Hints:
Strand order of the largest sheet: 5-4-3-6-7
Oligomer: single chain
CATH architecture of the domain at 219-305 and 401-457: 2-Layer Sandwich
Strand content: 5-15%
Number of strands: 7
Distance between the termini: 111 Å
Amino acid sequence: MENYKEEIQSLRAIIDDLKLIVADLRKENESLRKENELLRKEILYLKIGSNSRNSSMPPSTDIFKGLVQNPNRIKTGKAIGGQKGRDGNNLMFQTEIDQTQYHKKSHCDECGHDLNQIGATEGIKGQIIDIPIIKPIVIEHISMVAICPHCSNKNKGQLPGTLDYCHVQYGARLKDLIVYLSVRNYLPVKRIAEFIQTAYGIKVSDGFIIDCLTNKAEAVKEVYQEFLNQIKQDTVVGSDETGFKIKAEKAWMWLWRTQKHVYFKPSLKRDYKTIEEVMGAEIKHKFVLVTDRYPAQLKTNCMTHQVCLAHLIRECVNLNEKTGSAWVLKLKKIFKEIVKLSKPESIKIKARDNIVKRLDQILNQALTKSHEKVKTLRVKLLKIKDYITTCLYYPDVPAENNFCERSIRNVKLKLKVSTNLRSMQGAESYAIIRSIIDTSILQGKNVWTALQNPYILID
Length: 459
């Protein structure tokens, strides 16, 4: 009996140990189940890719993903392309004629009779518009020496520019053309040199092309700085930033824009220090700043902010596709209503107060069973809730920041055509000259004229 008791006691101890092991395994199993569920959700979330419809990716990235339908587009029922009855854009007859050529048959088509001495009347007229043969103009400057009859002093005429010590050089129009081809048309240095030689028979070096850009940027820098002063004094300002490369190093091109002026600024950092350097930290500006939800932008010291609702709508589309959240769909609907209501002729106080109340209610909902990404979005939007509806209180403030996105897209085009920029100085030259070009486009002024005389862009 004593042996049995000892054996039973030993077995009980083993059972207690096994119970503890089972309890630990159950806890571990429960933890693994939760982790597995989270991983499943994450895999499902990542399985549905991003495109131009549900993110800030450009439409060009959709080329390998098939046709992406835009659910936000309102169907009109009209056929694709030009509509019936529209006015065509045909070439018009020119009134200033440089040369006229008459076309008369020398012999009759029917009998072959000689028509050279027979009078003829005008028939159908046609015009060919072409460009003249391109030939560089060489202007020789000669310094004339006049000897004063009174004191015998030799008076030498002053040659323009630096011709006194650099006797053969290229003119301003050629230099402006190089700048235009590089910054406006995004051509890389080698192709600019090729074009100049092919079209004009003039051989220019890479260094000369870089000097043209650097010198033009220096010449228009005063106007460029005035753009920033004008932007700071405006009532509504948009801002955005995008990445680019300086050789192999990552950099950022920042943009500030109003309805009349554009200001680009390159930086090696995507942080608030860049904003401080450009806009200043001590002065509180009187404008409303329209941006995305990037924290550094929202720290800008200004009257108030408006976050881009186009970004938020795309984010809602993305989350709904990946999580199936009904809450996100309701939020997206409210964002669309705010955009529609923000039109200057549409803002009504009662409707505004109603939509602000609905937005407050939906952002304060407890999303206990929702995806973690949806919960995160709710928390982040709750912190900047007032910045979502600013456009409903200020009629001139747009609900979207698309106008800045369109302006900053040229940086990506430059990279696609010319790969990258060679130096920070090159990036600064590009930013200065591009500010001049985009400002002239905004103001409806000729880009070529503005490059030659940028002061026409200052009010």
